[in-house]
């Protein structure tokens, strides 16, 4: 399996253009810089800054909103001005945000820095993701290979960065949090310089939309909204790594110490098996079936935990259902996420790929925000532990019936 994974990764990498390689390495570097800082932010706010627990949660929520909720802004700007200026502007803002966060000592300063850090990603992430998707479609048309192979490699690069980033941050945290923030800023300085040198001003074949608009048409695009709903359900399920899973681990193990190993298991699964799984699926399933199968696998993960709660487990075996959930959730993620990104170019209007890419993240983020609040309420209710997991299993499977039949493209409107 390891030899197959390595060979698959090398074959996919060699088939890519220089631009695609740059953008995939960009995702890798983005996540190293980001995850070197983010995992340690909550503790810093609570201990070093002295914020109350509710205020720490509020600040973290602001970061999520300024990033995920404003993806659509970055998408619109990418369609209007192109990839290069939006990526460069996002890098500059992320550098400024990390430096500010490292020196911030008051609540207003922290809030301003966190908003800047989040908005930076709302600029560069839609720009990079939309161009990777467009280039993947072009490569598919030229070579006949599946676009999902490219998007899977993009996912692997992001997960590898998310795995390395916290290790770097933990190493630097022996100095202090400011050092961690400055190191994150240095990563983005390197990215900024690399893109200023290598990223072309005008990417051949990418249309530039001079007129505003497109949002009204997007909101009437039922096929796109259905895919958004399915993607949002996947994101809601994935967020249970941080909501329902810690609660379950605490219940069976008496502490949340095993969580770190379960998170590492998820990241390593993606890095090691994403490409061979994607290649196997691409030869057998279209995008709709890939998303449907992924959602069913994730639903099965919730069901496993629900069923296991009727059995008394002891010792290390008590964590087996949680580990099975993480494995099934990760496998489902490896089917759903690349397929959803690969589907967006078929659903977007001409010249609006940035808007649609950003809107999928923004709309899904809003749905996840509402769904997470409902899930948190359900976990706090005095109901048997099996109930939340069964409800989550059912919710995850429902969007399968909403997914549209795939068509090659959406006519220009």
Automatic annotation (TrEMBL):
SUPFAM superfamilies per record: MFS general substrate transporter
Signal peptide bounds: none
CDD domains assigned: MFS_MdtH_MDR_like
Predominant localisation class: membrane
Highest taxon above the source species: Bacteria
InterPro entries named in the record: MFS, MFS_dom, MFS_trans_sf, MFS_Transporters
Keywords attached to this entry: Cell membrane, Membrane, Transmembrane, Transmembrane helix, Transport
GO MF terms held by the record: transmembrane transporter activity
UniProt topology in membrane: Multi-pass membrane protein
Gene Ontology CC terms: plasma membrane
Name of protein: MFS transporter
Species for this entry: Lentzea alba
């Amino acid at each position: 399996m390891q030899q197959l994974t390595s060979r698959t990764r090398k074959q996919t990498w060699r088939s890519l253009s220089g631009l695609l390689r740059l953008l995939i390495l960009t995702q890798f570097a983005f996540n190293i810089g980001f995850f070197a800082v983010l995992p340690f932010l909550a503790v810093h706010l609570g201990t070093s800054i002295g914020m109350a627990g509710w205020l720490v949660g509020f600040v973290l929520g602001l970061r999520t909103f300024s990033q995920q909720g404003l993806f659509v802004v970055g998408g619109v700007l990418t369609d209007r001005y192109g990839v290069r200026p939006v990526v460069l502007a996002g890098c500059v803002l992320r550098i400024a945000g990390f430096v500010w966060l490292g020196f911030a000592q008051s609540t207003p300063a922290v809030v301003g820095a966190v908003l800047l850090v989040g908005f930076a990603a709302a600029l560069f992430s839609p720009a990079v993701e939309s161009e990777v998707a467009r280039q993947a479609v072009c490569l598919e048309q030229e070579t006949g290979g599946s676009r999902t192979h490219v998007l899977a490699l993009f996912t692997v690069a992001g997960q590898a960065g998310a795995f390395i980033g916290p290790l770097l941050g933990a190493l630097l945290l022996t100095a202090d949090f400011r050092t961690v923030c400055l190191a994150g800023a240095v990563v983005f300085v390197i990215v900024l310089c690399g893109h200023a040198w290598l990223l072309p001003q005008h990417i051949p074949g990418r249309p530039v939309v001079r007129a505003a608009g497109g949002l009204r048409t997007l909101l009437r695009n039922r096929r796109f909204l259905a895919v958004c709903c399915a993607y949002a359900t996947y994101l809601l399920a994935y967020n249970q790594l941080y909501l329902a899973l810690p609660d379950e681990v605490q219940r069976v193990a008496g502490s949340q110490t095993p969580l770190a190993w379960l998170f590492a298991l998820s990241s390593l699964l993606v890095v090691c098996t994403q490409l061979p799984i994607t290649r196997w699926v691409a030869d057998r399933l279209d995008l709709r079936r890939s998303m449907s199968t992924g959602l069913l696998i994730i639903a099965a993960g919730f069901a496993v935990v629900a069923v296991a709660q009727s059995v008394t487990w002891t010792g290390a075996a008590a964590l087996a259902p949680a580990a099975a959930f993480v494995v099934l959730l990760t496998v489902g993620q490896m089917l759903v996420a690349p397929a959803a990104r690969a589907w967006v170019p078929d659903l977007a209007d001409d010249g609006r790929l940035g808007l649609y890419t950003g809107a999928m993240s923004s709309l899904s983020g809003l749905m996840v925000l509402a769904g997470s609040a409902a899930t948190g309420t359900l976990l706090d209710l005095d109901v048997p532990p099996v109930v939340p997991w069964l409800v989550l299993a059912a919710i995850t499977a429902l969007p399968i019936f909403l997914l549209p039949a795939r068509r090659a493209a959406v006519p220009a409107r």
